[in-house]
Batch of 2 targets.
Target 1
Amino acid sequence: MAGEAHCAQHPDRVAINSCSRCGAFFCAEDAREVEGKLYCETCAARPDVDWLEALRLKYWGKRDVWAWLVGAWAAFAALEFVSSLWTLAWHGLGSVGPAWTQAVADLVMESCLVAIGVCFWSGLSWARVALPLLELIRVFLGSFRMGLLGAVFPALGLALSIGIYADVRNELFFRVPVSSARLKRWWHRYADNYVARTGFQFALAGLILPPLAPIALLCSAIGLTRVNPSAHPPIGRKQQAIAGLVLGVLGTLWGLALVYEFTHRAQMP
Ligand SMILES: [Zn+2]
Ligand SMILES: [Zn+2]
């Protein structure tokens, strides 16, 4: 039919709409929705259109701070393993006693830690589940050996490992599918304009500890220059950066007033 738009990819099909970015007509099959707007298939795949997808790709399979910490922990466990091995050799295989049993139990535990830690650092997905499980076993072992007090330290490790398991950034390292909504929430809550966020936190702390106020000013100023809502992903926290600047100035003035007061009093006879 004349006058009717056809799909750019499928000339035999009638177009349902045109792309928000390039204006090409597309049929129902080629239509892609990103953030409430319709795009053609090619444009929807662009990082400047789908910034969430670009964000996902940026961190996909990339080691996060937790991976490095668990890796360092595994290295520490390896040292402990050597020390336990030495203890075992010292007591000898013949003298089976409480110290010997303890050393064997330690060896088993430490070798598990090293294996899980190395696999975690390497991004093998089973280690993601194994880490909190191992910590749970350590809680039981600790309380069995030394009562409630012995469970306190492993319980902190368990809480931390559960926190790591639920962390979006760590999930991206392990290539776990993260929903767009969760990824977006994570970006806005933690990753977006980190400098401005830190600046605001320092500004609040600077009201009590004035020496922190200049740091808050510096961070908030840098954060403010980074604000760019049209970037991909969009960099926000403008209000927080401004609040950080205002509170930072207040904290600095307050600090200067304290210094003045102190020196003034010191000079009085
Ligand atoms: Zn397009
Ligand atoms: Zn088509």
Note: The beta strands are 17-18, 25-26, 32-34, 37-39.
Target 2
Amino acid sequence: MHKLTTPWAQRLRDSSQPAYLLFPELLAEDLHSGRLSPGDRLPPLRELAADLGLNYSTVARAVAEAQRRGLIDARPGRGSFVRGAAPALPLRGGSASEMTMNLPPEPQDPALLERLREGWVHMGNQMGSQAGRMMADLRYQDFGGTPADRDAACRWLQPLLGPTTRLTPDRVLVGPGIHGLLAGLLSLLVRPGETLCVESLTYPGIKALATQLGIKLHAIPVDADGLCPESFEEACKHLHPKALYCNPTMLNPTAATTTLARREALADIALRHNIPIIEDDAYGALPQRRPITMAELAPGLTWYITGFAKCLGAGLRVAYAQAPTAAASQRLAGAMRALTVMASPLTTTLATQWINDGTATAMLQAIRRDSNTRQALLQQYLGDRGVQSQADCFHAWLPLPASLSPNEAASFWRLRGVAAVASTAFATDTTPPRAVRLCLGGPSSHAQVEQALRVVVDTLAHPQQVHASVM
Ligand SMILES: Cc1ncc(COP(=O)(O)O)c(C=O)c1O
């Protein structure tokens, strides 16, 4: 079988969607992911039909559909070739990450901006007045933060982990962003070729890390109530996973929060099978009503990680990990030192300053308020379209009608200023749902968010414009 077509054959077998409609979507996905490049040649029709297990006329129809959507060029006598990718994104004075990363709203309150500035200046003044302190922050440090940084970390984590959690600095580490801590943790817990259980829709960074580290991902289905415990139990029995990675609160991308009953069931399974839990609580500070964390339900097994990317600023690159034990914390520190040396002492000092003077909490509250306003707009425009989200959340999950492919819709929307990402970017199994993640935050004003939502509503009402634009 042609190497190119192997995953297509599997997806076509697994899907109930007509093959001639799914085939162009598979091409679009592979173009998007870089698996296909403009100019790549498709196998001849007869070969393609044999590879995909379809009859000749279905394949001919599928290729014609892909051609109609502008994805391939058929050159008589020479075969079919993949056409160029969608035009580059118009950037709003930044990079493409603005459109694909999940960005919190940026509060514009002058008093709050002034507070951020004062914290920054105060830090500079402190350093200027104590020469030793400036030099200390310019030196190498042990991985994990100074005692003052770890104390501040404990203060930040306490409300997230509840009154029954006794936070101690010997179990808490400061790291260079959640992603950096995940890299260290995966390298510690899961060897190349071993299995990590993850949500079937998950933070794309975990997919990238698994690819980089040679880790096999096993998808546990997620629905509106979060991760499915029965599937996790099956995986524990038969696949011997080395850990469960989960993002149980405001899952990126679906915004679902795993219910307490499911969390208890998952913790119980993890305890019975002795499976470590990596709880990525990137959004954990956002909800007004805090869910009980996995770290509280299975404290001896859970690595709890959270950071400032979603409630203060991703550019700080500051995140915190609470290890299950002090010894485990030392093991993670060793792995992190090997991979990154340390988080920047300068930005860590700033984060500590902003926790201690209340600025971090003020930013969190402002981001939450702004998210509430954006959510009201979301409900106004897309409330009757099955959009899923929560009041304190700034991303949302939008199911699409059968007439719209997630990849095509997301590309079409991004060109029009809508921060949409197709389900394939998040999927860890071969059947991503027909949906996109919308991000309501970033540098966009409320008026720009409203304009983006109008574009989405208009496309849902007239889906044919997406195909017309590809032609
Ligand atoms: C679930 C989740 N984890 C981690 C990250 C990355 O966090 P950081 O910027 O702290 O590395 C993100 C960012 O989108 C995320 O959604």
Note: Residues 359-382 form the longest helix (24 residues).
